[in-house]
Design a protein that fits this description.
The protein is mainly alpha-helical. The protein has one domain. It is rod-shaped and about 110 Å long. The relative contact order is 0.04.
Length: 101
């Protein structure tokens, strides 16, 4: 504990303070480099997350658009127009139930 007090008292550079504190200095430098690396990696992850969120948003809009088009194709009038190409018509009679004894 006495060696670490040298830093706080201000006599760190006296009496071989640097050579005595070399492992601590190396450790602090390592932590600083590690922090810089982690911050760059986190920025890359944030950018990638934003790009994926934009892509999800665009796909959601595209999905809504396709659902709207599909709902338009299910309309009775549209189906009747498509079926007219095959000379088919909508039945005007009500359906009846077949009963089997």
């Amino acid at each position: 504990m006495k060696k670490s007090n040298n830093i706080f008292k201000g006599n760190f550079f006296e009496k071989g303070g640097i050579s005595n504190q070399a492992p601590f200095i190396i450790f602090v430098v390592f932590l600083i480099i590690l922090q810089i690396g982690i911050s760059f990696k986190s920025i890359d992850v944030i950018i990638e997350t934003n790009e994926i969120n934009k892509e999800i948003f665009d796909l959601g809009r595209q999905s809504i658009s396709l659902k709207t088009k599909l709902m338009g194709l299910y309309k009775r009038s549209v189906v009747e127009q498509k079926v007219k190409e095959f000379d088919l018509e909508t039945s005007r009679k009500l359906p009846f139930v077949l009963e089997i004894e």
